[in-house]
Structure formats: structure tokens, C-alpha cells
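REQUEST ID: PR-0412
SUBMITTED BY: lab tech R.K.
PRIORITY: routine
TASK: structure prediction, single protein chain
INPUT:
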Amino acid sequence: MRRTVETEEAPKPVGPYAQAVLAGDFVFVAGQIGLDPHTGRLVGGGTREQLVQVLENVAAVLRGTGHTLDDVVKTTVYLVEIAEMPAVNEIYARYFPAPHPARATVQVAGLPAGARVEIEAIALRGHPEPA
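STATUS: complete
OUTPUT:
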């Protein structure tokens, strides 16, 4: 059994997909880029600033499912420039302290809206769903 979740705290999807899908004991969070949920526009600055917004968006989607970043077991990070990994690791570690989730990082040729970074996440439901 599965169900989709949408929250106003995170940017609206830019295509035909859900912000998150609850399936069994898992929460699958769709890839998030650095869109400001209030304006729908990419935040200013570079990868660092966008990454902070990306992680805030992932956290907002998880809150909409009754979960937190602590429930994340796996992420995939998509970067336009892999050389920015040191900055990504620094900020990422603030949002995902030990024990860290598993992670894959992939360099890509481009992302939607000219984004520099995108993250998708899988969380394990460790507590009941919201009513």
C-alpha cells in the first residue's frame, strides 16, 4: 500500500510527481532543489546557499509525513560540479550528524531551474504516521 504526501512548507513539484511517497515502512522523498517554497524561485548564491535550502526542503517534506531528518537512511546527492564536495560535506554534516545515512553522490550535466545541487532521500518510518 502506498500514499502520496504534499506539504505547503516545501516547493510544489515542478512536474508530475509527489513530494513524497509512503510505501510500507519507507518514505521516499522526491529530489529537492534550492527553490524557496514561498516564491518558487531558486535561492540566490551558489551551491552552499542552495544546499541549505535543499536540506530545509527535504526536512519540510519529511515533517509533512510526520518524520525528521533523523529518520533518513539513504540520500542521493546530484551535483553540477563534483569539486564542490568539501563544501557539500561541511553543510551536509550539520543536517545529518552521526550516525550518517548512506549516500551516493553523482556529478550531473545539469539540473532543473539551473540548480547546482539536488538531493533525494529515503527514510525509514520509526514512529506512527500523522493522523
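NOTES: The mean pLDDT is 94.
REVIEWED BY: pending
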